[in-house]
Amino acid sequence: MSIKYHILFRACDKVESVHKVRRPFGLNKVQTIKLCFYSMYQALQNEEFQFTIIGDDLSNELLEFFKYFNDVKVDNAKLGSAAKSLQKQIDIALTIPNEEWVYMCEDDYLHTTYAFKHISEFVKNSKKYTQTSGKKKNYMNRIIGDLSDIPLIIHTPDYPDRYDPPWKRQSFIFLSKYCHWRQISNTTHTFLLESKTIKKFEKHIKASAVGPSDSKLSEKVYGRIFFKNKSLCLSPIHGLSTHMTEGVMTPLVDWKKICQENIEQMKHKELWLD
Hints:
Blueprint lengths: L3 E8 L17 H15 L4 E9 L3 H7 L5 E6 L4 H12 L7 E5 L3 E3 L3 H10 L1 H4 L9 H6 L7 E3 L18 E3 L4 E5 L6 E4 H6 L1 H7 L5 H8 L10 E6 L3 E3 L11 H14 L6
Parallel strand pairs: 1-2, 1-4, 2-3, 6-10
Antiparallel strand pairs: 4-9, 5-11, 6-9, 7-8, 8-10
Helix pairs in contact: 8-9
C-alpha cells in the first residue's frame, strides 16, 4: 500500500499570535513559520508528497525563503483573515483524489524527524490496529461496531491539557509498531485525513471555517462514545508534533533540541539568520 500526502500549509506572518501568547524559545512568527515548515519538509523526505503553501500576504523574507525548495508550490494572495485562508485550503483539499491523504496544517506546528515514518506505518496497518469487533461480540462491540470501518483522522500533537482533571476522558487506545494512539474528540484545524473523508464531512468542515471554530469541527466530525456519521480521530502518544505556543506544547519530547537541530541545518544552508 502506497501513501501520497498532500500538505496544505496555511501561513501568515502578519500576526504574531492570535491569542497574544508568546512563542517558545524566543522565536518570532517568521522564525516559527520557517522552523515548522522545515521540520515537516524534512520529515517527509522518505514519503511521496506534494507541498503547497497557502500564503496570506506573506512577507518578502518568507517568499525568498520558500524559493529554496523547488518542489514546494507557493500560492500567495491577500486573503485578510484566517477564515478565508482556511476556506481556500478546504477548496483545494476537495480537488484531491479520494484515496490520497491531505494534511490540513497551520503554520506553527513543529514536527519530529520521524513523524511521517510513524504515521505511514500506522495508516498502512490501521484496519488491523483499530479493529474492535471480534468473533465474540461484547456489549461495547454491539454499540459502536467495528472502529476499523470508520473514517480515520489523525491529529499529530498531544496537547497537555488532555491530562488535566477537567478534560480527562475515557478513550480507546490503540497500539502500533512505533507508538500508542489515543482516541480524541477535539482538535484545532491541523489534521490529516483522506480526501474522501473531507468530502464526506464537507458541510461540517466548511461550517467550521466560519470564525474559524475548532469546537464546531470537533462537535460535528469526531465521534466520542458513538460513531454513527462521525469519524475516529486519533492522536499519537508521544506526540509527533507540537503547537509552538507556550503552555500547550506536547509533553515528554525535547522540543528545544529538535528546534536547535533544525535551525543548525537551516544555518548550514544559509536559510536562517539570528
